[in-house]
Amino acid sequence: MAKQLNLFNRQSLNVGREFKECLASVVSDSGLSRAEFLDRMNEVAARFGVRLMKGNCNGLTMATFEKWLNVDQSQYMPPLTALTILCEVGNTIEPLQVFARAVGLQVIDEQDKTLLLWAKEYQKAKLARQVMKRLESEI
């Protein structure tokens, strides 16, 4: 069943500026120069057969990459296929979090997923112990 979203109690759904700020932060926090980050993106994209740009380009150009990171150029956004490559090269899920937060969700990594599954199983076991204790008192 789909979750009904509440449009009145949330941040803006216009996340373009926040997203671009996040992308720029990912690149600057990576420890790589923009040129090195771009080269890695092109390498990873080529390895996985992902096209980062439309047309006949062999890879993402520095000019387009700079436009993606510039918050004042809102008309230039990376395609979704490039987002996965950017997250991989930057070793982060934060750009995905920007979109998830806008619709009241959160993206979690494998460690948090494991912790969440453990907590759910713990709650099931706790409930089972309570049922067993109640049944035992009736014996």
Write structural notes for this entry:
This protein has helices at residues 16-29, 34-48, 62-69, 80-90, 94-102, 110-138. It has two domains: 16-107, no CATH class; 108-139. It contains six helices and no strands. The longest helix is centred in the C-terminal third of the chain and has 29 residues, at 110-138. The protein is mainly alpha-helical. The mean pLDDT is 89. The two termini are 40 Å apart. It is elongated and about 75 Å long. Helix 2 (34-48) packs across helix 4.
Mean pLDDT: 89
Radius of gyration: 22 Å
Number of DSSP helical runs: 6
Largest sheet: none
Q: Helical percent range? A: 55-70%
What low-confidence regions span 5 or more consecutive residues with pLDDT below 50?
Answer: none
What share of the residues does DSSP label as strand, in percent?
A: under 5%
N- and C-termini, Cα separation = 40 Å
Order of secondary-structure elements: HHHHHH
Global structural class: mainly alpha
- Categorize the overall geometry: elongated
Quantity of strands, as a count: 0
**Domains counted in the coordinates: how many?**
2
Layout of helices and strands, plus pairs?
Layout: H1 16-29, H2 34-48, H3 62-69, H4 80-90, H5 94-102, H6 110-138
Summarize this structure briefly.
By secondary structure, this protein is mostly helical. Helices cover 62% and strands 0% of the residues. Helix 2 (34-48) crosses helix 4 (80-90).
